[in-house]
Amino acid sequence: MKVLLVLYDGGKAAEEEPRLLGTIQNKLGIANWLKDQGHELVATADKEGEGSEFRKHIVDAEVLITTPFHPGYLTKEILSTAKNLKLCITAGVGSDHIDLNAANERNITVIEVSGSNVVSVAEHVVMSILLLVRNYTPAHEQIMGGGWDVAPMARHSFDLENKVVGTVGAGRIGYRVLQRLMPFDCKELLYFDYAPLPETAAKAIKVRRVESLEDMVSQCDIVTVNCPLHEKTRGLFNKELISKMKPGAWLVNTARGAICDAQAVADALESGQLGGYAGDVWNVQPAPADHPWRKMRHPLGGGNGMVPHMSGTTIDAQIRYSEGTKKILENYLTGKPQDPANLIVENGDYVSKAYGQRDSKAAEKKEEVRTD
Ligand code: NAI
């Protein structure tokens, strides 16, 4: 069996830190295990363009393993060259880098390590909300630059207490974000999701469901995006939706960069319509040097909480998604059934209900995915 691993190059950091498992140096910790069983493993970071190693090796690989942090974009066209491909494993959460409809046409299974980094992301979201609302980043930059000037920092710094926070998507991450916000005594916690939370789960965190997205964002001081990227969420936060947000509201997106229109976000931040924008996900990864999100700022300075795609790849998360990947491979190699909570598409259909409202067997799985 040929396994193709697309991971980022961890360089010196990965040589020094063996727990940086999601790198071509450390190969998710599965290289020897696979080789000892006689399987061929190719690990590469070279994923873009006609002559890339990704394109070369996908042609006869049976299993593709990628991470969302350095996604090997498996388009319909590339998929058509992948003659032996049977299984795509996402070492992490979020399989939008694979054309899932094309995978269904070819009966290819797409599976991820559900839950492996959801706490890691939820913590990052809470941190990002705080650093925007408190105006942390420009204040820190001021100190690093040798300055001391309180007023320009304090004029755009607020409390999280008594603010309205809403999440788009109340799945594993969205729910955990709201749970972690409870001690901050927000005015209200809201969610928009086509799949309602079970009543007990909603009551436990005192969250109110809002039926329309426009309605929810118009009530929020802070919006956090926690839904997958699919046909209905690509470009969701465009100029029009952002204009429905409260002037000066903060937006945090750790779900997928392409859920937000890059230029619309930059324009809204620079005009002050957004009080701040933070996240770790970009519409193209790695993000180009001239990406508008690198340098955008609020008129009062700051308001930019962008980092590289890292919220779901803490050392703790890397250990969990590496172990989860090994378990999925073990199941595959021994013919055992996969954990249904990990399956995105299988046997030509969506198993997960999180990738949009579809007329498929996923609809029957509502409660299962929600509560695990
Ligand atoms: P999940 O599957 O548990 O929850 C997703 C929720 O979004 C579901 O409740 C679903 O019904 C809802 N949803 C789908 N489409 C929607 C729409 N149009 N409007 C409102 N809600 C919608 O997934 P989980 O674990 O919470 O992860 C969510 C996403 O976060 C992943 O798909 C991935 O893109 C992203 N993620 C980012 C990471 C990072 O490192 N930045 C790491 C892990 C996940």
Comma- or semicolon-separated keywords:
372 residues, 7-stranded parallel sheet, alpha/beta, 16 helices, binds 1,4-dihydronicotinamide adenine dinucleotide, globular, 7-stranded mixed sheet
Strand order of the largest sheet: 2-1-3-4-5-13-14
Largest sheet: 7 strands, mixed
User: What is the number of helices?
Assistant: 16
Question: Bound small molecules, which ones?
Answer: 1,4-dihydronicotinamide adenine dinucleotide
Shape: globular
Order of helices and strands: EHHEHEHEHEHHHEHEHEHEHEHEHEHEEH
Structural class, please?
A: alpha/beta
Beta strand count: 14
* Ends distance: 32 Å
Poorly predicted runs are 366-372
| Strand coverage percent | 15-25%
Average pLDDT number: 96
Instruction: From the alpha carbons, calculate the radius of gyration and give it in angstroms.
Output: 21 Å
The residue fraction in helices comes out at 25-40%
Identify the quaternary structure here: single chain
